[in-house]
Amino acid sequence: PKSTAPPPLGRAVMDTLVWKDPLWSGGIFSCGIMAYGNLVWRGHTALSLVCGAALVHLIVSLATAFASALRASHSTSAAPQIDVNDLATRLDEIAAAANKAIAWYHTVLRGKDFSA
Asked: How far is CA 14 from the centre of its chain?
């Protein structure tokens, strides 16, 4: 008789480990290899890998939000209207926030005192 109990690691984890969906399992395996290579051979820290993953997530999120907004504007009007001044202002705000985050990250890596 077959056991109907769920696997100890969970069905999704087991499906990934036995390569039930090769695209998903290959993506997970590739990410693991890249993380290992960056930690061991390139000398990155876990914090830098987490920050890099967060940056990629932010870029993908912004790109999908922009694409969905653009798609919505195409469905409601014949020609999308983009305010160039508003776009420039938003890009300046994004650049300022990115520069602030990078400066903070370098402060953390240098071990500066945050109370000063």
From this structure: 24
Confidence of residue 1 (pLDDT cuts 50, 70, 90): low
* Tokens at 76, concatenated: 């409601």
Sequential DSSP letters for 4-33: -SPPTT-HHHHHHHTTSSHHHHHHHHHHHH
Threshold 0.70, pTM exceeds: no
Q: Read off the tokens for 73.
A: 């504007």
What gap in Å lies between CA 113 and CA 46, rounded to an integer?
Answer: 21
pLDDT tens sequence across 22-51: 999 999 999 899 989 988 988 889 898 888
CA distance 89 to 17: 47
Contact in structure between 54 and 61 (CB atoms under 8 Å): no
